[in-house]
Structures are given as structure tokens and as C-alpha cells.
Design a protein that fits this description.
EC number: 4.2.1.75
Pathway: Porphyrin-containing compound metabolism; protoporphyrin-IX biosynthesis; coproporphyrinogen-III from 5-aminolevulinate: step 3/4
Family: Belongs to the uroporphyrinogen-III synthase family.
Helix content: 40-55%
Strand content: 15-25%
Structural class: alpha/beta
Organism: Pandoraea terrae
CATH architecture of the largest domain: 3-Layer(aba) Sandwich
Function: Catalyzes cyclization of the linear tetrapyrrole, hydroxymethylbilane, to the macrocyclic uroporphyrinogen III.
Oligomer: single chain
Order of helices and strands: EHEEHEHEHEHEHEHEHHEHEH
């Protein structure tokens, strides 16, 4: 068996909010792939009094809703923390993807005691607003109260479509998102990686974060370093994110199926020949 020499392991740059890529990072390291965490979004509980008041009012009247829609695991987590009691079994829930469904399940909100609507999985699965809307019986919500829980901003497709079908929609914000300014340590770690011969790959899981990366890169680096950044491999899990990466300047983009297992498999496939090449030396 060949012992891997230090300095030759490929590196994945993870850009999710701090603490939200720990499982993927551990799996990558176990596969012989180094990890640099470089968060491009910050997530925090909602602090605006008006927004919190609207959220509390909605939670106080949960049983009035024919459906509650969560756009993300963050929406689930921050809402349940605010709720502070068991979710009523009579109130169905809809989520965009398996991460949100898992967050609900951790709180005991899952079949058979609760109705949870989630887009189906599989090799061709797409976990987005369009896929969730395809699972909803939209005409059934005409004239009925529906609650949409999200962060600040985001796409309007869910809200617009529900309203277009006559739903009496309430939209509340349970958390905030912002584009952070990386600290000195994060910049130094990225600068050191870019100055080395290490093969690296960016893992981009948000269009908003990808656009923020482009603005940071343009402000900090010269043309040669930008070319190195955008010449690296890039992995995404949705066509919309891939388009944002392409617009930023990446041209070696791999779009894989949604979910960390698929990202891990794609990154392992990318890293295998790099690792094998060095093992043969």
C-alpha cells in the first residue's frame, strides 16, 4: 500500500454557511480529499421586530393553515425554535428538498403521523420550487390559508404561483441571509491554496453565494489569479447554480444530482485520478 505524501491531496473548497457543511467535509476528508471552508453566506435568526411579530402571529394560528411551506432547512430550524411546542398533526407541511424533510423528521414531523410533501428523489431529482409546485394540488388551496416560511429575499416563484391559484398566502421570514466579508484567516487559507500546486475544486450550492464569490474575486485578485480560480473545477447541484457559475467565469462545471451523497460521489470521481497519479510516482 502506498502512503500518500503531504501536499498532494486534492482540495475541495466548501462555500456553505459556517457549520452547514460539516458532514460533507468529514466524508471528503475520509476519502482523501482535503477541505477548505470558505463560507459565502451567513445565516442568522430573524431579528427584525416586525418580521418576528408576523412569524409569531402565524405560529399562534397554525391550525388555520391548509398548508405550511418551508423553503429550506434553515426555515424549518428557525421556525421550530420559535414555535416551542409540538407541530399539530392536522397541519400538512411542504418542503423543497430532503434536507428540509430531514430537519422536520428530527423534530418528529414525518409520516405516518404528519403529512409531509417533498419532491421525489432519484437520479434525475431536482429539489427546487418548480419540483415542489409539481407535487402540490394547487387548485385545492384556492380560498384557503397557506403559510410560506423563508429567509429574507429569495425567489418569488412559490409565492406568485400560490397566489395565482387563489391561495390566501401569508409570507413570513424566520431567518436572515447576508453575504459575509471573509476574515483574514479565511483569505490567507485561500491565498495559500491558490499559491500552491494543489488541484482544487469549488463546491457551489447557492446562486447568491456564487455571485458573491464573483464580486469578492474581482475586488481582490489580479487577472492571473482570477484565471486560476475560474480555471479550477466547479461542482454544483442545480442548473441555476451552474448558470451563475458560468456567468462568474467558471468553465469546468460539473452539475450532479442534488444531495450531499451525489456531491461526494462526484468529487470522489474527480479526485481518484489525481490521487492515483501521485500514488504511481
Amino acid at each position: 500500500m502506498t502512503t500518500r505524501r503531504p501536499g498532494i491531496r486534492p482540495c475541495a473548497i466548501l462555500t456553505r454557511p459556517a457549520g452547514q457543511a460539516d458532514g460533507l467535509a468529514a466524508a471528503l476528508r475520509a476519502s482523501g480529499i482535503d477541505v477548505l471552508t470558505f463560507p459565502l453566506l451567513d445565516i442568522a435568526p430573524q431579528s427584525d421586530d416586525g418580521q418576528l411579530g408576523a412569524l409569531d402571529d402565524a405560529l399562534a394560528n397554525l391550525c388555520a393553515y391548509a398548508l405550511v411551506v418551508f423553503v429550506s432547512p434553515n426555515a424549518v430550524t428557525h421556525t421550530l425554535q420559535r414555535l416551542g411546542r409540538a407541530w399539530p398533526a392536522s397541519v400538512p407541511v411542504a418542503v423543497v428538498g430532503p434536507g428540509s424533510a430531514a430537519a422536520l423528521a428530527e423534530a418528529g414531523i414525518a409520516a405516518p403521523t404528519h403529512a409531509v410533501i417533498v419532491p421525489p428523489g432519484g437520479a434525475q431529482a431536482r429539489f427546487d420550487s418548480e419540483s415542489l409546485l409539481a407535487q402540490l394540488d394547487l387548485p385545492a388551496y384556492a380560498g384557503r390559508h397557506v403559510l410560506l416560511v423563508r429567509g429574507g429575499g429569495g425567489r418569488e416563484l412559490l409565492a406568485d404561483t400560490l397566489r395565482a391559484h387563489g391561495a390566501r398566502l401569508d409570507v413570513v421570514s424566520a431567518y436572515t441571509r447576508r453575504a459575509p466579508a471573509p476574515g483574514n484567516a479565511a483569505w490567507q487559507a485561500l491565498d495559500d491554496l491558490l499559491a500552491s500546486a494543489t488541484r482544487c475544486a469549488w463546491v457551489l450550492t447557492s446562486s447568491e453565494a456564487t455571485r458573491h464569490l464573483a464580486s469578492l474575486v474581482a475586488a481582490r485578485y489580479d487577472a492571473a489569479t482570477q484565471a486560476r480560480i475560474y480555471g479550477a473545477d466547479c461542482f454544483t447541484s442545480h442548473a441555476r447554480i451552474a448558470n451563475a457559475a458560468r456567468a462568474a467565469g467558471f468553465d469546468r462545471i460539473t452539475q450532479c444530482a442534488a444531495g450531499d451523497d451525489n456531491l461526494l460521489a462526484a468529487l470522489q470521481s474527480w479526485a481518484d485520478p489525481i490521487q492515483a497519479k501521485h500514488d504511481d510516482r
